[in-house]
Design brief:
GO terms for molecular function: oxidoreductase activity. By secondary structure, the chain is an alpha+beta fold. It has 3 domains: 227 residues, FAD/NAD(P)-binding domain (3-Layer(bba) Sandwich); 102 residues, protoporphyrinogen ix oxidase, domain 3 (Orthogonal Bundle); 105 residues, Polyamine Oxidase, Chain A, domain 2 (Alpha-Beta Complex). Helices cover 33% and strands 24% of the residues. It is built from 17 helices and 22 strands. Strands 1, 2, 12, 13, 14, 15, 16 and 22 form an 8-stranded mixed β-sheet that branches. α4 packs antiparallel against α5 and α7 crosses α8.
């Protein structure tokens, strides 16, 4: 019998396991893929290991920095400015939150007319409580700064990052603490400044990439005695509430078979039917005939939303009137990332700074371009060492927006899009290495409706002793939301 089983070896599952281990509670982490990290996975491009998925995290909580410090992982702020691209016209992104500047001197305000800027100033000098009851990001910006700021400065950023209108972005989910800061400061611009400051960026990255944090977590967990099992997945779950209240600790051996486990055979409340997976990176499937049952006192489900809900819902209490466990979890269509290593000295001046977000509806299919080696200087140093000081640059191009056909970019398409954004023709012979990474559907930032459904679902989860659920679909998108939520689960689960 296991003290604690954690389903999912992504950053949420690993973080929960670490918080548990610090309490002296050892766990077994079970991951369907053959590697850990999920969307925080890493890989080698042009001789340098970089992030293939998530590359940074927002500073929404000090917990992430504390975690990195405990693990000896050094973090750095990004280098360079970023832009929004609208069919040949690049505009600076505000130093602030979601395109909302932290100062009236921000160059991003140049997209407004004199009249629009004057309107924004007047609105933001109104009674401090105006906008504090807003449900969405759009409501807040419209009330405090006006429609022009929303349309010209905030919508392009929200659309380029999440492919979704700020009308559908839950304010507390995407900008935690901003509502309270507004009430305290009496001005939205001042509220953003209080959260962002003047110099530092809102994101950081571990040296070596997010994947370096995954590697450090994995190594530390194994040193602390946590078991990590890859290539296995949960396909069914049973719960015995009488066992949950039992104080006995008689060990129960795992059994094998193709039927669902009977938790009544064990004093442990959770019976988890596992199977070996086929190891597919995008959508692992169970291998028939490899089933086995494990029992656990505690269970943390750190899977993606659809899989987590399907596994957990059958053991939850009957939902109260008006609560639906089957609501549609907002996801985009499958997304892709093209990573290019380019030897071209014309990119040395970094004409797009650290990168550019492409406004939805533009003529280019690409969603964003990150000049990775400019944004993160450690990567440029590693490239220089690997290639003898040549003018080698790493570019990441992201494809895929909600409601649009699933992208199937090629290396040639990525070169063409990068050329259009940089304004220089990048030739095929300049390519040192190119790679296309395909991901499944990605979670869209939480809407007020999704947030309400999640809260109801988690209240039902809390009614099951020893059960917890974590991950982006309940915590909010981005590692800045996921890691603190997962850590809290590990600190508090009974």
């Amino acid at each position: 019998m296991h003290e604690t089983v954690i389903l999912g070896g992504g950053i949420a599952g690993l973080t929960t396991a670490y918080a548990l281990a610090k309490r002296g509670i050892l766990s077994t982490v079970i991951e369907a893929r053959m590697s850990l990290g999920g969307l925080a996975a890493g890989g080698s491009i042009a001789g340098v290991r970089i992030d293939l998925g998530a590359e940074s995290f927002t500073l929404r909580s000090t917990k992430i920095l504390e975690l990195c410090a405990e693990l000896g992982v050094e973090v750095r702020y990004p280098h360079g400015s970023s832009w929004v691209w609208d069919d040949g016209v690049a505009s600076p992104i505000a130093h602030g939150i979601w395109g909302i500047p932290s100062s009236w001197d921000d160059p991003a305000f140049t997209v407004l007319s004199a009249e629009e800027l004057d309107t924004a100033r007047k609105l933001d000098s109104t009674v401090s409580s105006y906008g504090s009851q807003a449900h969405t990001l759009a409501e807040l910006v419209r009330v405090r700064l006006g429609q022009a700021v929303l349309t010209k400065m905030v919508e392009p950023v929200a659309g380029a990052i999440h492919g979704i209108s700020p009308e559908k972005l839950d304010l507390d989910a995407v900008a935690p603490g901003l509502r309270e800061a507004l009430l305290h400061e009496g001005s939205l611009i001042k509220a953003v400044h209080s959260q962002r400051g003047e110099e530092q960026a809102s994101i950081v990255q571990p040296v070596g990439g997010i994947n370096a944090l995954v590697d450090a977590l994995s190594a530390q967990l194994q040193a602390m005695g946590t078991s990590i099992v890859t290539g296995h997945m949960a396909i069914d779950l049973m719960y015995d509430d009488s066992a949950a209240s039992s104080q006995t600790s008689t060990p129960v051996s795992s059994s094998t078979g193709s039927s669902s486990p009977s938790a009544s055979d064990s004093p442990a409340p959770f019976g988890i039917l596992l199977a070996r997976s086929d190891g597919d990176k995008k959508n692992p499937q169970p291998c028939p005939g490899t089933e086995e049952v494990v029992f656990a006192k505690r269970l943390v489900v750190a899977l993606d939303g659809p899989h987590a809900r399907a596994l957990v819902a059958p053991v939850l209490p009957t939902p109260p009137t008006g609560v639906d466990y089957e609501w549609t979890i907002p996801h985009s269509d499958p997304i892709s990332t093209a990573i290019l290593a380019i030897d071209d000295e014309r990119l040395d001046p970094a004409p797009l700074g650290s990168g550019v977000l492409v406004k939805p509806g533009s003529s280019l299919p690409v969603k964003a371009l990150t000049h990775y080696s400019m944004k993160w200087p450690w990567a440029a140093q590693e490239l220089a060492r690997a290639h003898g000081g040549k003018h080698v640059h790493l570019l990441r191009l992201s494809y895929g927006r909600p409601g649009e056909p699933s992208p199937s970019p090629t290396i040639d398409q990525a070169l063409q899009d990068a050329s259009a954004l940089f304004g220089v023709a990048i030739k095929r012979h300049a390519l040192i290495e190119g790679r296309i990474i395909e991901w499944g559907p990605s979670l869209i930032a939480h809407s007020p409706e999704h947030k309400k459904n999640v809260q109801s679902f988690l209240r039902s989860v809390d009614d099951v002793l020893g059960l917890a659920v974590t991950g982006a679909w309940v915590a909010g998108t981005g590692l800045g939301s996921v890691i603190p939520h997962a850590y809290k689960i590990g600190e508090n689960i009974d």
